[in-house]
User: Fold these one by one.
Assistant:
Number 1:
Amino acid sequence: MNLFDLKGQVAIVTGSSRGIGRAIAERLAEHGAKVVISSRKQDACDAVAAAINAKHGAGTALAIAASISHKDALQSMVDKTLATWGRIDTLVCNAASNPYYGPMAGIADEQFRKILDNNIVANNWLVTMVAPQMRARRDGSIIIVSSIGGLRGSTVIGAYCISKAADMQLARNLACELGPDNIRVNCIAPGLIKTDFAKALWDNPEQLAARNAETPLRRIGEPDEIAGAAVYLAAPASRFMTGQSLVIDGGVTI
């Protein structure tokens, strides 16, 4: 058995029109999976799906726009995936929000709630939607993209860090609940990655130099350097791993 063979698998990847999510979707497809590309804008999803289909064959990728803020849209995405391919083997909860930078004392209630709803509650919605058919087959992998922010304090992205710590606990709880049905639930905790989402943290040359200096590998990461962990967690290679958080940060947290 090829430990990283994903042929026959179907994966949903939220927030996959760019950045880490796109890299994950591309690498899952490269290893044989069919992938659902999802983000808020249909045209952005269409473009990524078209590129994947051009590279790996028509029918490899399906574009379904869905905002993580809207439960009905997420349910529709799950329903369309099942109607098209009949199964969901891997769910990657990658999409997240961070509308506020600054001290906790300055965050508006609406901003705080948006972070918690989109980064925690929406993930639980998706798991609840996808898990029944995984349970019926007694097989599945759920991957939540957390952050090393869930392991550290911050003076500028505190609420985001709170949500990412909660994602790690969500994975542990769900791993306990779903494990008896052979469903694995794990987190990936990236460090600072060069994405548009994290641009406020790396776009300033002085900030970037300071971050590089405190990183053992002396640089920030690239989206594709996170994708391999998702392939591992989706594949048979990780079939005895659950409830864990894989830290991929160039050594920052050590």
Number 2:
Amino acid sequence: MFSSNCDHLKIYVDGKLVAEADPDREQFPHLRYAPFTVDLSKAVSSWGDLRVEGYIQDRQLIVKSFSGKGMDQAFEVLPDDATLFADGADTTRVVFRVTDEFGAIRPFSNDAIQLDLEGPAALVGDNPFAVVGGTGAVWIRAKEQPGSVRLTATHPVLGQKQVQIELVATFPETV
């Protein structure tokens, strides 16, 4: 079953077109965007990478690929901001993602990520932090002195990633 707002899908396994599908309006007439139901059991003799192309009015609008390996391949650490004000309150979110080689989140990944924060900031969140469904986030709150903050996140299998956030001085309020 595929959920999409497209009006046609083409499904490939290991680069071979194995199915095309339209929304299943027979089973789901009440839904504006009915899911696509596809039986791949007869079309696929061996499993591999999955690629789904989505079309609206015969125009390809999206392509999604998923690994057939079933393994966590990449670990990403993504801060929303690279600069914060050193005012004791400015905060940014840092997202952790475990993906396959195509960048698709691995929904069953649940490893504990060890965090190490250096510099004039505080970590808001658990440490270690367990990703749930392949993703999660913590927050970094600036303290009141400017400088560089480095967050090192260590995945038990996929290794370390570091991000740096600069804390810039603020000017006192004038009335």
